[in-house]
């Protein structure tokens, strides 16, 4: 039941962000939301996912918490297979290249995102998997 609600809510939120050019749905509480466009890793079909992001030094950070679930989020697995995608953010569309942060960069970014949204610390306690942080940079 929870998963169906989350799916319905995220689909509806993506719709709102898209049709209002980000004027509605791009803020949830203290978090900023963008729409991530990926290609389904198995289906090859386009996917649109609203997701919280952090604007960081000209890049966008996405945290793959998947709400503390035991599996990685589909959007993350899609980006692992095809790291090129696009985002709708603040009423504009941007082609991006994704990469997973690692090592010292990850430690620094984890500190950055958890200081701004402490809920990620709770999500990490809820799961045994490593919560990834994806860095989106403008595609060249």
Kindly describe this structure.
- The protein has 4 helices and 7 strands; from the N terminus they run αββββαββααβ.
- With 140 residues, it is of the alpha+beta class.
- It has one domain (2-138): Roll (Pnp Oxidase, Chain A), CATH 2.30.110.10.
- The protein has a 6-stranded antiparallel beta barrel with strand order 2-3-4-7-6-5.
- The N and C termini lie far apart (41 Å).
- The mean pLDDT is 90.
Features:
4 helices, Pnp Oxidase, Chain A, six-stranded antiparallel beta barrel, 140 residues, alpha+beta, single chain
Helix-strand layout with pairing:
Blueprint (H helix, E strand, L loop, with lengths): L1 H18 L7 E2 L2 E9 L6 E11 L2 E5 L10 H8 L2 E6 L2 E9 L2 H14 L2 H8 L6 E6 L2
Antiparallel strand pairs: 1-2, 2-3, 2-5, 3-4, 4-7, 5-6, 6-7
- Backbone structural class: alpha+beta
Question: Which second-level CATH architecture applies?
Answer: Roll
Spatial gap, N to C terminus: 41 Å
- What is the string of SSEs from the N terminus onward? HEEEEHEEHHE
The helicity comes to 25-40%
Structure summary, number of beta strands: 7
The number of helical runs is 4
Report the mean per-residue pLDDT as an integer.
Answer: 90
Strand content: 25-35%
How would you characterize the largest beta sheet? Answer: 6 strands, antiparallel, barrel
As for the CATH topology, it is Pnp Oxidase, Chain A
Radius of gyration: 14 Å
**Strand order within the widest sheet?**
2-3-4-7-6-5
Indicate the low-confidence ranges by residue numbers: none
Globally, the shape reads globular
CATH level-4 homologous superfamily: Electron Transport, Fmn-binding Protein, Chain A
């Amino acid at each position: 039941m929870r998963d169906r609600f989350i799916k319905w809510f995220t689909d509806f939120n993506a719709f709102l962000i898209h049709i209002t050019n980000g004027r509605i749905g791009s803020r949830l509480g203290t978090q900023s939301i963008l729409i991530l466009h990926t290609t389904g890793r198995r289906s090859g079909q386009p996917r649109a996912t609203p997701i919280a992001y952090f604007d960081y030094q000209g890049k966008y950070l996405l945290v793959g918490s998947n709400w503390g679930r035991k599996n990685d989020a589909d959007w993350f697995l899609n980006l692992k297979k095809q790291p090129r995608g696009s985002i709708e953010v603040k009423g504009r569309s941007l082609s991006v290249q994704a990469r997973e942060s690692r090592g010292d960069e990850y430690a620094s970014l984890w500190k950055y995102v958890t200081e701004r949204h402490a809920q990620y610390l709770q999500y990490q306690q809820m799961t045994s998997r490593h919560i990834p942080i994806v860095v989106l940079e403008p595609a060249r």
